[in-house]
Fold this sequence. Notes:
By secondary structure, the protein is an alpha+beta fold. It is built from 5 helices and 8 strands; from the N terminus they run H-E-E-E-H-E-H-E-E-E-E-H-H.
Amino acid sequence: MMSMMEFPQPATIQEAIAIQQQLQRQVRIYDDFATLLRIGAVDVSYSKKTNHAYATYAIFRLPALTLEAVYRHSAEVTFPYVPGLLSFREIPVLLPIFQRGAPLPDLLLVDGQGIAHPRFFGIAAHLGIVLNVPAIGCAKSRLVGVHKPVGVIRGSYQWLFYKHRIVGAVLRSRTKVRPLYISPGHRVSIPTAVQLVQRWISRTRLPDPIRFVDQQTRRYRQQLEA
DNA sequence: GCGACAG
DNA sequence: ATCTTGTCGC
C-alpha cells in the first residue's frame, strides 16, 4: 500500500494505464461521508507559450457556499494531454497544494470525469483516491458513454451508460445550455452526485465552486505571465 | 482500419 | 486547455 499523497510519475502510456487499472480497484461508489461542512473545487490552467501550468484549490463553507480560502501552485507540465490520462497531467500541479498542508474538504468537485472513463478512473476518481476524499467529476463534455436525449429544461437529466454500466448522468444544469457530465469520483453515489451538483448551480451552466476556481485559475495565470 | 477523444 | 471581441439570441 502506497503512503498518502504519493504520486508515481509514469514514463509511458502503458505504465500510466497500468497504474489506473491498479488504483481503480480502490474506488468506492457509494455515499461515504459525514455532514458536509466544507466543499472544495480544483482546476488547472495552461500557458500556450511556456510549458507552465497553474492550479487553484478553493474551499467553501456550507450551507451558504462562503469562500473560506484559496490556494495556488504553478509547475512545469510533465505529461502530455492524452484523452483518458488527464490526471497524470493535472494532479502533479495540484498535489503540492495539499502536501503543503491545505485543509482537505468534506467533498471535492473536479473539472473532469469521475468513473465515466475508459477504465472507470478519471481525474476525479484519481484525486479522490490519492487524497482519500469524497469527490465528484463535473465535466463540460463527454469522454465515454451513451445516453438518451436530455430534456432542454433545467434539471433534466439522463443516465450515462458505458460498457453495460451506469457511470454517471448527463445533466441540463440550465435551460437550453449544453449539458454537464456528472460522475462519481470516489465515496459518492451517482444519485447523490447529481443532487449535490444541482444544489450548487445558481445562474450559470457550471456549479458555482467550479466556475469560481475556473476564473481564479485564469487570473492567476495571466497575473504570473504579465 | 476508421473515428472518437475530459482538460 | 489556449488563441481572441464583439455580437446574435433567448
